[in-house]
Design goal:
The structure holds 3 protein chains of 3 kinds. Chain A contains 12 helices and 6 strands. In chain A, the strands form 3 sheets. In chain A, strands 1-6 form a two-stranded antiparallel sheet. Chain B is of the alpha/beta class. In chain B, helix 3 crosses helix 5, helix 3 packs parallel to helix 6 and helix 5 packs across helix 6. A 6-stranded mixed β-sheet of chain B has the order 6-7-8-3-9-10, sandwiched between helices. The longest helix of chain B is centred in the middle third of the chain and has 21 residues. Chain C is mainly α. Chain C folds into 2 domains: about 80 residues, no CATH class; about 240 residues, no CATH class. Chain C is about 70% helix and about 0% strand. In chain C, helix 10 packs antiparallel against helix 13. Chain C is globular and about 70 Å long. Chain C starts with a helix and ends with a helix. Classes of the chains: A mainly alpha, B alpha/beta, C mainly alpha. Chains A and C meet through helix 5, helix 10 and helix 12 of A and helix 9, helix 14 and helix 16 of C.
């Protein structure tokens, strides 16, 4: 107990950071699923592409002698999300739109294919440019903020340190979530999006350009996914073309946990899974007396996914949808 | 003797009550129509009988035995078969296979029997094939045996759904808008087919239908639903002249005129 | 070309002469020349031609078996590369059997399984753990372990059962919910199994962790040990033969029809009396059991297993085989699996070797590294342009005249009996 509590502040902060990343990626899954009933397997790879685009841009900035500060970071975030947004729209146009009337299995297969293509393309480019597909990028905010040790209720809490970047990640992630929430609930296009998600045919009859709305959904989902990739690269420095896969799986779990199609649910699910994962990684060894270690942290999200599917398949905030007969 | 009884069954969807307190008794070997304007709850009523929805209140009995809330496959096993409003065939499978799927509950082939292709399994398969073929002949689809179900003309698809339902050897056959999209000639054929099914096989037929000519011609009893409630019942002539029914279909002003 | 095709389909003499010629030429050149990938591939191509001939099924299967059991092993035995060819053939056989297993799940039942390799891993590890000295680390005082190569035959069945059991354990919760979640759950399951095997060297050393299990015995029968790939080849052929037989049986059975019905329409299937979860579980368990079986073979052939053989890429490779060949089509899946595994094992490496050695192309361009790109393109391309795959699935057809004749005979028979009463 003492051991667990002593590292708690660090665990909470790390968990919140990771959770914020999961949450924003989960938004992309949940938005696309809400509108197309398609698990967009490529979304994890769009996140990964964002991380690489951001890293490449920062390298370029250093090369041309720009100083790395919050302004360049914002510029990189905007450029990277623009590019990944366009990437997402392109994927939808090429690989999903022709399959909208096909049996459900077919677009899923196409999505898996796109995800593999993206992984290998990024791997190829990275390896071609740098000789190695594992890339360590530039970090804009490197300094650390120390939190001193303190004692609470008789328990000693260790000192912890956070990168200032942690605050940037959490701050921007929260900002994205708030803006998206307002967009979806208050603006004309957001309402059109929800209408298409509920009933595509009726929405079309009401004069909504369904293709445009779907493209917009992909653009927003991919753009924020790509921006999260940039934040991820900032936070964890080292990236490779395969980071999107497991992370995507966890983000999807977060989306299911929050009730697929439910945007606020996805945010909550992401934070919860991030916290649980970091907590498990830090304390699994302590809790099981050393039998199981941090290497099982990836198993956690998966077990949560199974449990949710068994006990609450509609998620914490979703409602069960029955097929119309 | 009653074959199927629904006793004050109710179904809510969120705040909407799709079917409210409906009680209907279907006599053995009868042909009954359930009619009503769109959204009256007819299909929901069918879905409760066939187990796709579980009623929020009330009971359903088949042959005096309770079947309320059972899963669809158990209800099919007990002897209720149906067709669907928006045709639900196994599109990629052949016409013959579609009917053979209907025989599912009557085939006994087990895992090992299938794997080792025992004589028993082989003769059962052969028998099923002939039975399926004879059903196709019965509904007039004998020439389509090897076609994919999705390639059939619309009217033929509706007939195939009926053949597939008959393959389950049902006691009760539920037809959800069997004549929808059919031309007059096809509708006449269908009418004859339904009458024939009842006469040959002693099956209790219940149908939802908007084609009033068909309904008036073959039903012995008609039940009218509106806004989820039973508003009228009786013989075709009684229903034709019932002011409540006219109101439900045409609005209040229609009567005063 | 068109003329040739029509000549092929119309004349059986032409078919037999062509196939004989191809088999003769390719097998001779394979026998005489040491390394002739082209003739090896052309020899395999004769199977495809055989499939398109108009001979009766018995003749096709007989000729196919003759080529597989006699011609290929003899032709390949001509030079020092014998074991290389046999190795390729063994791996192709293992992949074909696995693809046929996955085809039950994806092709027949319409359930997307993205972690199929997990069941392969289970089979491989079950044999690996109990038949190798690893078992002694587990059961210190037992004299029974390790079980040795004689137990291989038993483990073919045990591997199948264990894989099926895990298929059911995973399937029971997941198959209840909507279909597309299955894809993500199986994807996760595939990774989890790998992580678990990678870390199960503590607290008790069961799998020896990332180091893997070595010293797995080769199959033994009546004192004969299957040491070479050319020995294992025959084992694979027999198991593969059984798998094809089994899949064929199930395809046109009560169970097979209910799989396809569920794939087409779950609600209508239920209304026909088909229990959804149970039927899907059968598909899941049966597909898994094939994979588990091949895992045992794989472990026995390599004498070594470690977690790196069971990555997501492997699962996707098997999926690509099914999709490329044609979902639900047994000949298609066999073709797809053959193409992809040979591409993977031989052609890509040959091209890479040629490019890097002869043309001095930098290694980063080597096609062998671009499997993911290649597989991704195949998946997207097939999904968009040819979802039915190379050889589309066909429904079994029946002669209407036969059905009619038998039916009328039966009817008169029943009439006779009724009148006699």
């Amino acid at each position: 107990m003492q051991e667990i509590l002593s590292t708690l502040p660090q665990v909470l902060l790390d968990g919140l950071t990771l959770g914020a990343i999961y949450a924003v990626v989960a938004l992309g899954y949940t938005m696309v699923y809400g509108i197309l009933e398609l698990i967009n397997f490529a979304h994890g790879e769009i996140f990964m592409a964002g991380a690489f685009i951001g890293t490449a841009l920062l390298f370029t900035f250093v090369d041309i002698g720009l100083a790395l500060n919050w302004l360049t970071l914002i510029l990189v975030l905007l450029l990277a999300s623009l590019l990944t947004g366009v990437l997402g729209v392109g994927i939808e146009r090429i690989a999903y739109r022709p399959l909208r009337k096909a049996p459900k299995l077919i677009p899923l297969i196409s999505a898996v294919g796109i995800s593999f293509i993206l992984q290998d393309l990024v791997r190829f480019i990275a390896e071609y440019k740098t000789g190695n597909y594992i890339v360590t990028g530039q970090t804009v905010f490197e300094n650390k903020i120390a939190i001193p040790a303190f004692s609470i209720g008789g328990y000693d809490v260790h000192a912890s340190a956070i990168k200032s970047n942690t605050l940037v990640v959490i701050g921007i992630a929260v900002l994205i979530m708030i803006v998206l929430d307002i967009f979806v609930n208050r603006t004309k296009w957001g309402i059109a999006m929800r209408a298409v998600a509920q009933d595509r045919d009726t929405a079309a009859l009401m004069g909504i350009n369904v293709n445009k709305v779907i493209a917009l959904t992909f653009f927003i989902g991919s753009a924020i996914g790509g921006a999260t990739g940039v934040l991820y690269a900032q936070q964890y420095a080292t990236i490779n073309p395969f980071i999107g896969f497991i992370l995507g799986l966890k983000a999807f779990t977060a989306a299911v946990l929050g009730g697929i199609g439910n945007i606020r649910g996805a945010m909550f699910g992401g934070l919860l899974i991030g916290l649980l994962e970091v907590f498990a990684a830090a304390n699994l060894g302590i809790l099981t007396g050393g039998a199981l270690g941090a290497e099982y942290k990836d198993v956690f999200a998966f077990i949560i996914l199974i449990l949710v599917l068994i006990f609450k398949p509609a998620g914490l905030f979703g409602q069960a949808v029955k097929e119309k007969v | 003797m009653s074959m199927l009884t629904a006793t004050s069954i109710t179904k809510h969807f969120g705040g909407l009550t799709a079917v409210k307190d409906v009680s209907i008794n279907f006599e053995k070997g009868s042909i009954t129509a359930v009619i009503g304007p769109n959204g009256a709850g007819k299909t929901t009523f069918f879905n409760m009988i066939t187990g796709i929805y579980s009623p929020d209140g009330g009971e359903i009995h088949l042959d005096q035995k309770p079947i309320t809330g059972l899963k669809p496959n158990f209800i099919a096993e007990k002897g209720i078969a149906r067709t669907f409003q928006n045709i639900r065939l196994f599109k990629e499978m052949s016409v013959l296979e579609n009917v053979m799927v209907g025989m599912h509950t009557h085939l006994k082939a087990g895992f090992l029997g299938t794997l080792f292709s025992t004589p028993k399994v082989r003769s059962e398969e052969e028998q099923a094939r002939y039975d399926a073929y004879s059903l196709l002949e019965y509904v007039g689809l004998a020439d389509w045996v090897n076609h994919q179900a999705k390639n059939l003309p619309y009217g033929a698809q509706r007939k195939l759904e009926i053949a597939r339902a008959l393959a389950t050897h049902p006691k009760v056959l539920l037809l959800d808008e069997p004549a929808a999209g059919m031309n007059p000639k096809e509708t006449t054929e269908l009418t004859d087919l339904i009458l024939q099914i009842r006469d040959d096989k002693q099956i209790t037929v219940i149908l939802i239908e908007h084609d009033m000519k068909l309904v008036m011609r073959i039903s012995e009893q008609i039940y009218v639903l509106d806004h989820g409630q039973l508003i009228a019942q009786g013989l075709p002539e009684e229903i034709r002249n019932n002011p409540n029914v006219i109101e439900a279909y045409l609005g209040k002003s229609a009567i005063s005129v | 070309m068109k003329k040739l095709a029509s000549l092929f389909s119309s004349s059986r003499t032409f078919q037999s002469v062509l196939i004989l010629l191809i088999v003769l030429c390719t097998s001779t050149s394979l026998y005489l020349m040491d390394k002739s990938v082209t003739s090896f591939l052309l020899l395999l191509f004769s199977f495809l031609l055989l499939y398109y001939t108009t001979f009766s099924n018995w003749i096709k299967w007989g000729a196919g078996a003759l080529i597989a059991f006699a011609v290929i092993p003899v032709a390949a035995s001509g030079g020092p590369s014998q074991q290389v060819y046999m190795e390729v053939a063994v791996m192709a056989g293992i992949y074909i059997a696995m693809a046929l297993g996955l085809n039950i799940v994806v092709g027949f039942a319409g359930l997307l399984d993205l972690g199929f390799v997990a069941f392969f891993a289970l089979g491989a590890y079950v044999y690996g753990i109990f038949a190798s000295p690893q078992a002694q680390a587990l059961f210190h005082n037992s004299s029974i372990f390790p079980l040795g190569g004689e137990s291989f035959w038993l483990f073919i069945i045990v591997g199948a059962l264990v894989a099926a059991l895990f298929g059911i354990i995973l399937g029971v919760p997941v198959l209840r919910v909507k279909g597309d979640y299955l894809a993500i759950v199986t994807l996760g399951f595939g990774e989890i199994i790998r992580i678990v095997f990678n870390n199960l060297d503590k607290p008790i050393n069961i799998t020896n962790g990332a180091l893997g299990i070595s010293g797995i015995p080769q199959p033994k029968l009546f004192g004969f040990t299957f040491t070479q790939a050319s020995h294992i080849y025959f084992l694979v052929l027999i198991v593969l033969g059984f798998v094809i037989y089994a899949v064929r049986r199930f395809e046109d059975s009560k169970l097979g029809r209910s799989w396809k019905a569920i794939r087409e329409d779950e609600i209508a299937s239920q209304a026909m009396g088909i229990p959804l979860v149970k039927t899907k579980l059968w598909a899941f368990a049966l597909g898994a059991s094939f994979s588990g079986m091949m895992g045992v073979l794989f472990a026995a052939k390599n004498q070594f297993v470690d977690p790196t053989s069971f990555t997501l890429l492997e699962s996707i490779t098997i999926l690509v085989m099914v999709i490329l060949g044609g979902m639900g089509s047994v000949p298609g899946v066999i073709l797809g699996a053959a193409i992809i595994s040979i591409l993977n094992l031989q052609i890509l490496t040959e091209i890479t070797l040629f490019l890097t050695q002869n043309l001095h192309v930098p290694e980063v361009f080597s096609p062998a590294k671009m499997q993911r790109l290649l597989f991704g393109l195949v998946l997207v391309g097939i999904a968009i342009f040819r979802p039915q795959g190379l050889i589309p699935a066909k429904n079994k057809t029946y002669k209407i005249a036969d059905l009619k004749a038998k039916l009328s005979k039966k009817n008169t028979k029943t009439k006779e009996t009724t009148t006699s009463i």
